[in-house]
Each structure stands twice: as structure tokens, then as C-alpha cells.
Amino acid sequence: MKNYETVLATEADRSEIRALYEAQKGQEYCSWNEHYPSDETIDFDLKRDALYVLKEGGRIKAAISLEEDEDVDKLTCWNDSLRPEGELARVAVWPEEQGKGLGRIIFGFAMEELKRRGFRGLHILVNKHNVKAIRCYAVFGFRNVGECHMYDQDFICYEREL
């Protein structure tokens, strides 16, 4: 097994994170565009200690954010008994590294981090056409609890207990 480490991202990681995000754009099923995610998105995550990166030999292989989005939190499909719930977003793996389980590694780490921070549940929105992400999240036992249309996209709402 390779020697991966998942760590809190720092300002020194910004350019590599930005490049990782840019590499996702235009990939099949990716709805990101020239405006999202942006440097402001990275600022938001860094200020909240909410951006984690998976590294191998000092190079970033993947990233994930612990999200805060009041509009998503207000959706009525979420199970009140799982509150407080965390949310994960901006899961990104370099295209040449996809299919190697790195998304699962960083996603599993982020779930444990949310649990450590006192969250009882986890919810995520997945673009309903993002087959790769849907397959990845199924491994973790998420339940489909509804659908919504936000940010000009159709999403499946997934939830699970931590």
C-alpha cells in the first residue's frame, strides 16, 4: 500500500489545489465551471480549517471540503434525528489518479473528521448524472432521501449516520 497522508490544507497548497480543481472541469459528469470552485471558495475553506488534502510524497492527489451551506441544511429531506449534520463537498481526485480508491480514502477520512468534530450525521448533494460519485458514495452506505434543484443543477440528496 502506498504511503498516503491526509492533512489540513494550508495557504502553501493553494496553487496545487487550484490546479486540481481546474483539472476536474470538463471531465465527464463534472458540473464545475469557470466560476466554481474559485479562489474565494478556497479562501472560505482555508479560513474555516475545512479543506483537507490527500498527499503522497508531498504531492496532492485529492482534496475534500467540510462544507457549510445554509440553503442545503434547510432542505426538508434531512432526518432531524441525525442533527447536527455535516456536509462534504468539492471532492476532487487528479484525473490520472482516479479509479485507484483515493476518493474513498479521503472521503472516509473526512467522515471521521466530522464525527470527531461532534456531528451525528452527514448529508451530501450529488449531481444526479455523476455516476462515478454515486458509485463511490454507495460504498459508504448513504441513503437516497430525495432530490432537489439548486445552483442550476439537479441533485440527489444522500444522508447517513456517522
Give an account of the 3D structure.
By secondary structure, this protein is α+β, with helices and mostly antiparallel strands. The chain is built from five helices and seven strands; from the N terminus they run E-H-H-E-E-H-E-H-E-H-E-E. Strands 1-2-3-4-5-7-6 form a seven-stranded mixed β-sheet. The mean pLDDT is 94.
CATH H-level superfamily: Gcn5-related N-acetyltransferase (GNAT)
Strand content: 25-35%
Alpha-carbon distance between the two ends: 26 Å
User: Treating each run of at least 4 consecutive H or I residues as one helix, how many helices?
Assistant: 5
Global geometry: globular
Unreliable segments (pLDDT under 50, ≥5 consecutive)?
Answer: none
Instruction: Please name the CATH topology.
Output: Aminopeptidase
* SSE topology string: EHHEEHEHEHEE
Annotation, overall tally of beta strands: 7
**Structural class by sheet pairing and helices:** alpha+beta
| Biggest pleated-sheet summary | 7 strands, mixed
User: Whole-number radius of gyration?
Assistant: 15 Å
Strands of the largest sheet, in order across it?
1-2-3-4-5-7-6
- Work out the helicity level: 25-40%
CATH architectural label: 3-Layer(aba) Sandwich
Overall pLDDT score: 94
Number of domains: 1
Top-tier CATH class? Alpha Beta
Structural descriptors:
single chain; alpha+beta; Aminopeptidase; 7 strands
Quick summary of this structure?
The chain is α+β, with helices and mostly antiparallel strands and 162 residues long.
